Amino acid sequence: KKIAFVSERTGKAQIYIMNADGTGLRCISDGTASDRSPAWSPDGKKIAFVSDRYSTPQQGNDDIFVMNSDGTHIVRLTEDPEYDFAPQWSPDGKYILFTSSRYGGQEIFIMKADGSCKMRLTVTEDIYEWTPVWSPDGLGIAFAKGKGDDYDICIMDRGGREVRKVLDDPYEDRDPSWRPY
Q1: What percent of the chain clears pLDDT 90, i.e. is strictly above it?
Q2: Closest by CA position to 98, among listed 106, 113, 108, 83
Q3: What are 53-102's pLDDT values in tens digits?
Q4: The domain defined by 2-136 carries CATH number 2.120.10.30
Q5: What are phi and psi of 10, to 5 degrees?
Q6: What angle do CA 69, 113, 70 make, to 5 degrees?
Q7: Whether the predicted model's global pTM rises above the 0.70 cut
């Protein structure tokens, strides 16, 4: 078993992997950028992550990338002047959810694992939708929705239809996580 995590021990956020017992620590980032938010593919062969490797000082932004779990073969999946973040693999490894600020707020998108067929799942103005996570069967998506200090937990199907609030209160509720089977 391996654990991927982010460390700034070199002065820049880099992705490391290690064995679950703490041995075998190794940096798999190439050191050229700030790499964050590692997400393992279900088969453990790939890691999706967020990086600013193609941003400029005038236009800082993050995109979603994928690499082999040993740090080789880095491929850019998104390319937008706004921020793309929080990648989440579908349980079958065919899709990746992510959050983007490309339309002013924060919206949830889905794309194929190779970066093709990007589709916006949420469409709301002045409301943020973020931290999407797949249900264990891959048919549903839980996420936080709201603004200011009032976020609620919602569920939608994988196509972005049938959105429903499952927790609606005046608090900042976020970062949902499904219990595995």
Answers
A1: 75
A2: 108
A3: 887 666 668 999 999 999 999 999 999 888 999 999 999 999 999 999 98
A4: yes
A5: -100, 5
A6: 10
A7: yes
User: Alpha-carbon distance 168 to 41, whole Å?
Assistant: 32
Bridge partners of 107, per DSSP, are: 100
> 173 near 155, Cβ under 8 Å?
no
Residue 67 in tokens: 């690499």
* Token pair of 113 as six digits: 């694992």
Q: How many helices (H) and strands (E) does the chain have?
A: 0, 15
Q: Which residues pair with 133 in a beta bridge?
A: 142
Rounded to whole angstroms, the Cα distance separating 23 from 29 reads: 18
Structure tokens at 133: 């996570």
Length of the chain in terms of residues written: 181
